[in-house]
Amino acid sequence: MNEYANRYYVVLILMLSVGLIFVIRLFSIQALDNTYKKSAENNSRRTVIEFPTRGLVYSRDSALLVENLSSFDLMVIPENVQEYDTVAFMRVLSLDSAKFYTAYNKAKKRPSLPATVYKEIPDSIFTKFQEIKWMFSGFYLQTRALRYYPLKSAAHILGYIGEVNKNIVASNKYYKQGDYIGITGIEKTYEEILRGQKGKKMYSVDARNRVRGSYKNGEFDEIAISGKNIMLSIDADLQLYGEKLMGQKRGSIVAIEPSSGEILCLISSPSYNPNLLVGKNIAKNYGQLRNDKDKLLFNRAVMAQYPPGSTFKIVNALIGLEEKVITIYSHFNCSGGYHVGNFTLRCHHYSSIDFFYSIQGSCNAYYCNVFDRILRNKDYSTIGKAYTKWRDYVLQFGLGKKLGTDLAQELKGYIPEASHFDKYYGKDKWRPLMLISMAIGQGELGFSPMQMANMTAIVANRGYYYIPHLIKEIEGIDTIPSKFSQKQIINIDSSYFDDVIKGMERVLLPGGTAPNAFIEGLDICGKTGTAENPHGKDHSIFVAFAPKINPKIAVAVYLENAGYGSTYAAPLASLMVEKYLRDSISHPEWEYRLVNTTFKYKK
Question: Under DSSP, is residue 548 helix (H, G, I), strand (E, B) or coil?
Answer without folding.
Answer: coil
